[in-house]
């Protein structure tokens, strides 16, 4: 049976994997080596130097390709290193269209690193295809989509953007960190590149920082592989091993993230002291119809705004939480709470932030795998 015929729940475990060639180890060993013996110059078993390739990383890269329905996976030292590699496909003078409420670090690398190399970025609301099209010109070479967006949980129509990108011959990259391939498969919807911060749900246990790119097209894979090797932001064998181990339970974890996410989103929506709750599973969510079409469920990321509350009151709530840890990041087995305005999105100027809804009192939850009743009790005591 070819890997391509496997269902998702089997791909997470077996996709792209074979027992190790040396001793039949079921989990790929951690090949903690920088180099490989050659019998004659160039006479090697497929590996010469671990920046170029390492067997543990290759096992992870094959798994990534399989779960995203791609043909090629590339693993990096962080999500941002993966993004860095994508932007390096471009040249000075090129333009990029992206969302206005994307991950703070993505905004920072675009604005503060790549603008000075002559690449222009447009940060816009991507809810309307016409709006996106109005920002496209002959120099536009890349559309960067993140969906659901962080932290506002807007959902962008991947198929719609992909049709537009194809019409104008522009690359489409989708940051699939929040949804994971358990919920949404951008390559199937026409995207050219899927990007992950595997630090989050793919790793799933808050113990690694890893990034990933997955593509279908061989030429594009070759170009990205060239950049990966030439720039060198690869992930090490130990982190590759841990991420691969995480992926093997992705489907089981995501199922519970979705169940707990739903329970908590509903609890918050019915709470008299909570104003807005942003979660794409609600029928009254602005993009619920698109979410229903392109996602299989709605995930465990939720943002909310306590009624009439201020910066300080929001901080009080996150400080009072006990089972939810106050921390950056998301997607691990443990529940986390964050205050985007002072944490993940502090690098975005206040006016920019508020334009997209990231007000001072917004709180973001990454709902983990604890018992939902315990999580609700914790929110109850913190919100009061
Ligand atoms: C965390 C994150 C990134 C950056 O990934 P790192 O692994 O932290 O470098 C990019 N996009 C999203 C949506 C993220 O949550």
UniProtKB/TrEMBL annotation:
The keyword Transferase applies. InterPro entries: Cys/Met-Metab_PyrdxlP-dep_enz (IPR000277), Cys_met_metab_PP (IPR054542), PyrdxlP-dep_Trfase (IPR015424), PyrdxlP-dep_Trfase_major (IPR015421), PyrdxlP-dep_Trfase_small (IPR015422). It is an enzyme of class 2 (transferase). It comes from Croceitalea vernalis. The lineage of its organism: Bacteria, Pseudomonadati, Bacteroidota, Flavobacteriia, Flavobacteriales. Pfam families: Cys_Met_Meta_PP (PF01053). One of its GO terms (molecular function) is cystathionine gamma-synthase activity. CDD domains: CGS_like. Keywords: Pyridoxal phosphate, Transferase. The keyword Membrane does not apply. This is Cystathionine gamma-synthase. Belongs to the trans-sulfuration enzymes family. Its EC number is 2.5.1.48. It comes from the Bacteria. Its cofactor is pyridoxal 5'-phosphate.
